[in-house]
Amino acid sequence: MNIFNKVSVFDLKKAGLINLAVGGINVLIHISVIAGLLPYMWVNGGRTDSYEMACSISASSIVVTLIGMFITLVGAKIIPVKFNRFWGIAFTVLLMAMLPLAFVGGVQQFLGTLFEKCFCSILTIAGFLTSFRIAFEKRWPPKKG
User: Fold this and answer.
1) I want to staple 88 with a disulfide (CB 3.0 to 4.6 A). Which of 33, 57, 83, 138 is the partner?
2) Beta carbons of 56 and 49 less than 8 angstroms apart
């Protein structure tokens, strides 16, 4: 049994819901930074020079996370979308291309602040594993003829 068969044992919709929860927590963290509830030095590796810069980075992170959450909704079939062969393969390639970025994000968490190492790294690992499951779901019909 190869890794793809093993990962497919984990329920796709559960992976999607976990991934959405991770994204939601990420959004809440960045909203907390913007609202001043969480010190801006705790995120972005502690390398942000000012509150204004942290707000800008957090706002862009929220937008990227919300786009990722929409992609998760479609990829995990929570929002059912019927793909033809071309678009199903293209969407799968997109999801697989995003996996290295998620992996690098996990590495960055371990190189960041204590808050990122202790809390955000766990979220990032959960997000990577569920993204891996979602990416390797077959979502196109078999080739005809």
Assistant:
1) 83
2) no
Distance CA 71, CA 77 (A): 10
The Cα 68–Cα 143 span in angstroms is 29
**Cβ(70)–Cβ(95) below 8 Å:** no
One pLDDT digit (tens) per residue for the chain, 145 residues: 566 666 667 899 999 999 999 999 999 999 999 999 999 999 988 899 999 999 999 999 999 999 999 999 999 999 988 888 888 888 889 999 999 999 999 899 999 999 999 999 999 999 999 999 999 887 777 777 5
**Four-CA torsion 35, 26, 91, 102, nearest 10 degrees:** 120
Q: Cα separation of 91 and 94, whole Å? A: 5
Contact between 113 and 42 (Cβ < 8 Å): yes
Which alpha helices (DSSP H) does 2-145 contain, by range? 3-7, 12-35, 51-75, 85-110, 114-115, 121-135
